[in-house]
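G., the chain you wanted modeled:
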Amino acid sequence: MLSVVIQTHNDEDALARTLASLVSASVEGVVREVIVCDQGASDRTHSVADQAGCHYLANAHAAAGVR
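Predicted structure as tokens:
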């Protein structure tokens, strides 16, 4: 199983598209978790991640998600 780390900043639309592309892998059991590392977004990034069931790290770079 894989853990997916996504780094983002004020790009909720692209995040939603990226997460949608991972749905089939998640259903098949290939993707175990998705960690969204947000660099201080002022849009709805947190809401998109939350609705998709992701782990959300505020004000974090991808390295924090890897840890």
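Strands lie at 2-8, 31-38, 55-57.

Shout if anything looks off.
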